[in-house]
Amino acid sequence: MNKTAALTLLLACMATALPGTLAAQMANPLRGQAAIDQTNRVHDFKPMMKEQPPLERAYVQQPPVIPHQIDGYIINANSNKCLTCHSWENYRSAKATKISLTHFRDRDGKELSNVSASRYFCNQCHVPQVDAQPLVNNDFTPVDALNKH
Amino acid sequence: MTDSERPARTGKGRVFGLGALTVAFVLGIVFWGGFNTAMEWTNTESFCISCHEMYENVYVEYQDTIHFENRTGVRATCPDCHVPKEWVHKVVRKIQASNELLHKALGTIDTPEKFEAKRLQLAQNVWRTMKKTDSRECRNCHGYDYMDLTRQGRRAFDQHVTGLDEGKTCIDCHKGIAHRLPKMPDNEQVSLAR
Asked: Does A83 contact B158 at a Cβ distance shorter than 8 Å?
């Protein structure tokens, strides 16, 4: 087959396939059913999940996710609400996870006697969860060290 | 003259006496009503935030909290937490409020920097009062005996049960529920553990 014919054939295939895929995408878009030029009204607004046991990590060094709500918890120069339960002095009476030793190390690797300033703002790494499934399928599995099976 | 010979009030004198009494009674109601109206007018959120010291500091912080905006729309405003509801305690607090008027005139906290410098002292004043009254103002709405602990989360359940055993009061743990926490002395964290 010569170049022109091959090109024409390719274009013909694309022309038939394209509307099909477009239609498939349009039938069930991730952004919802509203037209492009309309405001998309959020109808299933998901609240943060209430308290549950600690969730499994996907990576060994992953900052664990927060298994409870943190509405109104303030972290500023004056006070850190998270540490009222998770600090080394308080975690036992609050029955909470102890803040990791890695948070006592500054960026030069020096060990400090209290939480490092670079680890003070918990929400830079730790987030609460919402009960939502991934929008796109993925078959990621963690390393054997974390794998329960 | 003996008692039996003293002339009794008769005729116009008697009516005049009664009339004066009635007028005095009605005036009394009017003035007492006026006094209470004025006092209740100072017992509103809009009165409290008419001072910029309150509006720009504690009111702004309170707007991020659950007592300002929440699922049910049931709210607590400034007087609900800071002014007792019982009449005697309320009047005592109102008299103490003359101190606040004095400091308003002196401008003790009229800039953000001055307010931050005083934040710890002001917070401790409120905490001390609440501890002394066993969190009376919290109990205006939150009745511990009517709390269904089984409907609370694990953390709340644990802390409320052990708290009751240890004789704690609301303010012991719920500091910072409505306004930002101050920097504690000696870098101590405000914590649940006491």
From this structure: no
- Please report whether residue B12 resides in a domain: no
Is the CB of A137 inside 8 Å of chain B's CB atoms? no
Q: What is the pTM of this model?
A: 0.79
User: In this complex, do B182 and A95 lie within 8 Å of one another by their Cβ atoms?
Assistant: no
Residue B182 sits at the chain A interface (C-beta within 8 Å): yes
ipTM over 0.85: no
Q: How high is the pLDDT of residue B56?
A: 95
Q: Chain A residue with minimal CA distance to B186?
A: A78
Whether residues B191 and A68 touch (CB distance < 8 A) is answered with no
Asked whether residue B154 is assigned to any structural domain, the reply reads yes
How far is B169 from A64, CA to CA, in rounded Å? 33
Angstrom distance (rounded) from CA B127 to CA B168: 13
What kind of fold does domain A48-132 have according to CATH? Flavocytochrome C3; Chain A, domain 2 (1.10.1130)
DSSP B20: H
With beta carbons less than 8 A apart as the criterion, state whether B158 and B173 touch: no
Handedness of CA B171, B173, B179, B180 (dihedral sign): positive
